[in-house]
Every structure is written in structure tokens, then in C-alpha cells.
């Protein structure tokens, strides 16, 4: 004998979500059902009309009740709902799926079996990617506090740079995945094969988004702050940069980084990071070299690429282009550690950035010594 419904008849169940859009019923509130509930509940174009689950302690049951979504123990009740456009079976029960395949009603689409499993696995991956973004933001908050403590300045600019980095890469990738998921839902109703192909494309794009999130995390915290080791951090960053963007890198160092204060190392890393970010975005270069020369009196950083270059006179006359090519950020960071940055570039001849910091003067200023 089939179990009886726990609440009211589905025809009398309370309404949740939007009054228009796609009305969805979900069979199964395990991992798959919970993943579907989490993503659909925030979509203004989707209304979850009911969830069927026989296990009272299933992970999706508590979530559904918390969101005010009706829950029944008898999945057959969903087939009698007056308003339902899509029924998704993620119960994993072969008998349930067999019955659903024999169910036909105008305007109602049934998704189950491998298609439903693939869908919720993709949605779970999307949720994990969102969690990774939240971790990234938490790490950024730590970086924010470090900058306030060490410098008291340049925080707004750093936040803008990271926001642009996430918007141009990570967020756009996730937006693309979201669009393709919506498209796949429409396609599956008409042609499951076409819909599954779109889902596979979404999964591949989601992998790229996860890689982008990891890169953002690495960029946020490149140094080991307990030891503040600059040379290994730059070596790792250049290796990652070369792998990700396929731009050949060369790193040359001379001198002892131990004479540098942590604040100087942080700003130096950010200058190199900003310069190489500009190379990847604008230079169309195939090779970039980073040189670091340290002696007791001065620090010199040289960054050169073999890219297309640009007209410096034109750029310097236009403040908006200063930001576009990252010139303002590099010059400001150099100034904040008592140095200066010079940029030389010509169309077709690449770009060279030289940062010169007088160490003795800078270090005494940093500690307020006379």
C-alpha cells in the first residue's frame, strides 16, 4: 500500500515563489532534490509547487519546509496537480521512473533517469563554485585588513582591481553557465539530446569558472605572510601566469630580499602582478621578462614585454587611458614606497616598466628614523 500524504491535497497546498513562470514538481529530496531546490528557489522565473519524498529525514525535506514548499510522501499526488509544467524525478527509484514514463498530459514535461541525474550533478557543481567564490571573498577581507594595517592607503584601488578581475573572468563564466542551464531546460523538453549537449557545454564552462576562482584566490594571497618570502612567491606566480596565459616568462634576480620590509615586498608583488595583468589584456605579447635587482641602497624592478606597445604621449594626455593600461596603479604603488615608476612604450616595440626605489631613504621613512 502506498504511503499517504502528510499535508493537504496538492490542489490545496499553499503557493510558493512567483505566480508566473515554470511550475516545477520534484520527486526525491536527497542530494539531487536538495540541489534542485537550492537553485530553483532563488530563480524568479521558477515556482516549486511541491516536493515528494518518503524519507522524513532526507536533506531536502527540511530545506523545502523552511522555504514554505509543500512536501508529500506520495509522488503520485504530483501527477494530479492542476498547475505543473515540469516534473523532475531524482528519486533513483526505477519503479517511480517506469510509472512516470507512462504518464502523458498536455503541457507537462517529465525529466528523470540519467538526464535528471546529470542536471542535479551540474547544479551541485555550480553551488560548489559559488561556495568557492565566498571563500575567495573571505580571503579578500583578510587582504583588506592587511592593507589597512600596513599602509592605510591604496585599499580602494586594490578592491577595484580584484572586482574587475572577478567580473571580467569568474562572474562572466558563471553568468554563461546560468544562461546555458536555462537554455538546456527549454531544450530538454523538445529534444533531450540537444538539451544534454548544452548541459555538457555548461559543465565544461563551469570547470573553467572553478579554475578562475582558484586563480583569484592565489592572486589574493600570494605571499607566505609569516615569512614574507618574495622570490618564491614571484616564481610561483610567473609559473602560474605562463601556464594560464601561454606567455613565456623569464625571472632574473640579484641581491638579498631579507633587507626589504614586508610592506615593500607586498607592494612590489602587486606592481609585478598589475604589470603582467596589463600584458595579458593589452600587449598581445608572447614573452615577458621580470628583473629584480637589490642592493643596500636601492631596489630596481624591470618588466619588459615584446607586445604591440602603445603611444605614451597619447596615453599620458588622457587620464582614462591611465587606468585602462594600469599606469596609474603602478605609479601610485611605487610612490607609496618612496620610489618612482617610468614607463616606456612605442607602437610595435613592446613596453618596458622600470620601478626605482631608494631603499635607505625609504626604510628610514617607513620607521620614522632620523
Which spans have pLDDT < 50 for at least 5 consecutive residues?
A: 1-18, 361-370
Largest sheet: 5 strands, parallel
Order of helices and strands: EHEHEEHEHHHHEHEEHHHEEH
Number of helices: 12
CATH class bucket of the largest domain:
Alpha Beta
Widest sheet: strand order?
3-2-1-4-5
Helix content: 40-55%
- What fraction strand? 15-25%
Which structural category do the helix and sheet elements fall into?
A: alpha/beta
Explain what the structure shows.
The chain has 370 residues and is an alpha/beta fold. It folds into three domains: 102 residues, 3-Layer(aba) Sandwich (Rossmann fold); 91 residues; 138 residues, Histidine kinase-like ATPase, C-terminal domain (Heat Shock Protein 90), CATH 3.30.565. It contains twelve helices and ten strands. A five-stranded parallel beta sheet has the order 3-2-1-4-5, with helices on both faces. A five-stranded mixed beta sheet has the order 6-7-8-10-9. The protein is elongated, with a radius of gyration of 28 Å.
Short descriptors:
10 strands; single chain; disordered C terminus; 16% strand; 370 residues; 3 domains; 5-stranded mixed beta sheet; disordered N terminus; 5-stranded parallel beta sheet; Rossmann fold; elongated; alpha/beta; Heat Shock Protein 90; 12 helices
Amino acid at each position: 500500500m502506498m504511503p499517504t500524504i502528510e499535508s493537504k491535497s496538492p490542489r490545496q497546498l499553499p503557493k510558493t515563489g512567483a505566480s508566473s513562470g515554470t511550475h516545477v514538481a520534484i520527486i526525491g529530496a536527497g542530494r539531487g532534490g536538495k540541489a534542485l531546490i537550492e537553485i530553483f528557489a532563488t530563480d524568479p522565473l521558477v515556482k516549486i509547487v511541491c516536493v515528494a519524498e518518503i524519507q522524513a529525514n532526507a536533506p531536502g525535506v527540511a530545506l523545502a519546509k523552511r522555504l514554505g514548499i509543500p512536501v508529500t510522501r506520495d509522488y503520485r499526488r504530483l501527477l494530479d496537480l492542476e498547475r505543473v509544467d515540469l516534473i523532475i524525478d531524482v528519486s533513483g527509484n526505477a519503479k517511480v521512473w517506469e510509472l512516470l514514463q507512462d504518464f502523458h498530459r498536455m503541457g507537462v514535461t517529465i525529466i528523470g533517469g540519467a538526464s535528471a541525474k546529470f542536471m542535479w550533478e551540474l547544479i551541485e557543481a555550480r553551488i560548489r563554485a559559488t561556495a568557492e567564490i565566498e571563500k575567495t571573498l573571505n580571503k579578500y577581507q583578510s587582504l583588506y585588513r592587511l592593507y589597512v594595517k600596513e599602509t592605510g592607503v591604496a585599499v580602494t584601488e586594490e578592491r577595484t582591481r580584484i572586482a574587475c578581475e572577478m567580473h571580467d573572468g569568474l562572474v562572466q563564466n558563471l553568468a554563461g553557465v546560468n544562461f546555458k542551464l536555462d537554455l538546456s531546460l527549454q531544450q530538454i523538453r523538445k529534444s533531450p539530446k540537444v538539451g544534454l549537449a548544452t548541459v555538457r557545454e555548461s559543465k565544461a564552462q563551469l570547470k573553467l569558472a572553478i579554475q578562475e576562482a582558484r586563480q583569484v584566490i592565489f592572486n589574493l594571497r600570494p605571499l607566505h605572510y609569516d615569512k614574507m618570502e618574495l622570490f618564491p612567491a614571484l616564481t610561483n606566480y610567473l609559473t602560474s601566469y605562463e601556464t594560464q596565459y601561454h606567455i613565456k616568462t623569464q625571472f632574473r634576480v640579484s641581491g638579498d630580499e631579507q633587507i626589504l620590509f614586508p610592506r615593500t615586498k607586498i607592494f612590489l608583488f602587486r606592481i609585478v602582478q598589475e604589470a603582467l595583468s596589463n600584458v595579458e589584456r593589452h600587449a598581445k605579447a608572447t614573452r615577458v621578462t621580470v628583473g629584480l635587482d637589490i642592493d643596500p641602497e636601492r631596489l630596481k624592478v624591470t618588466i619588459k614585454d615584446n607586445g604591440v606597445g602603445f603611444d605614451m604621449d597619447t596615453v599620458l594626455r588622457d587620464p582614462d587611458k591611465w587606468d585602462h593600461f594600469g599606469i596609474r596603479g603602478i605609479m601610485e604603488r611605487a610612490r607609496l614606497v618612496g620610489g618612482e615608476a617610468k614607463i616606456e612604450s612605442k607602437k610595435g616595440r613592446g613596453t618596458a616598466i622600470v620601478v626605482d626605489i631608494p631603499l635607505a631613504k625609504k626604510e628610514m621613512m617607513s620607521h620614522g628614523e632620523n
